[in-house]
Amino acid sequence: MSEDIKARILEMLRELPAPGGGDVVSRGMVSDVFVADGKAFFSLSVPAAEAERFEGLRQEAERRAAAVPGLTSAMVALTAERRGGGMEARPQERRPVPPPPRPVPPPAARPAAPPPVPRAAKQGVPGVGRIVAVASGKGGVGKSTTAVNLALAFQAQGLRTGLLDADIYGPSVPRLLGLKGRPELEGGRIMRPMEAYGLKAMSMGLLVDEETPMIWRGPMVMSALNQMLREVAWAPLDVLVVDMPPGTGDAQLTMAQQVPLAGAVIVSTPQDLALIDARKGLAMFRKVEVPVLGIVENMSYFVAPDTGTRYDIFGHGGARAEAERLGVQFLGEVPLEMAIREGSDAGAPVMAVHPDGAHARAYAAIAERTLASMEAAGSTAGKAPTIVFE
Prior knowledge:
It contains 11 helices and 16 strands. The chain is α/β, with parallel strands linked by helices. Strands 8-9-5-10-4-16 form a 6-stranded mixed β-sheet.
């Protein structure tokens, strides 16, 4: 059955024109197609420097694949890992080397510059030991799922743990934890966090209806984040995990500058185009002097449940190689697994409902390495909280 569906997908893709002529199949842009549980997975190989130009093509391929009879949905990613069909970026033209600059006489002595003004100390959250930020350079890499299971893994190691959903524009923690209702108030102003599986949790998704669009500008976003950090009865906590918005915009930068983070965890998928965005997030944290605790490779590989065959649908090992290149810790890999997706959709994360399973063990190992990385970065339980970014 799956072979018939794969054949229909490839037949459909042969009707999808590729830039420069031909179709995406004949140009060698389509990876192996895998079908499981009514969902198709494949990637399109494109030049890394032109990824944005091919986003519309990716969306159209995903739309057409999802419409194939026998499928309920499709997941298509862009990758530059395999070159094919003439889609490679053109080699750069050689340019003449300019002559060396003429020596310039030393400038006249100038008065010494005034000493730099020390930065204002970041205000911690009372009663919270460390804040770990889970971040990603782009959406769709499983950041929130990673944040939820990482928080549960910290809790399994005996740490009093909370989870703040700081993804204002797309809060998903209530769905991932199966939370419903509204937080109660203490003393008319301080919100009491809701609880699921022993975790204290707060999210904008608990304060507004799920379908309400969040059309907010920077100052409004930061005001909301500050309220959820400082006007919530978090204490006592050993660790607060913060699920950050994807990207490197004002919200992420302001959070990193105003909150004393113990460090950031970067979540990426294996393909090199996702790693480009992860690299930007890592650079941002380094620029604002927040320790990068390491990189997690999500959707690392897929093992077919019927045959046990392993498929590297989006490539494999890219995050590990990037971590080594950048000199940061590789925290671990999590497979692309139906049980993780189904549990997340049902509000039953694998770390809570299958704590002894293989996937929970992967998150537990990532949590152990994250804590070790925090200790190596000089974080202690008495210091300000740490936020982890997926």
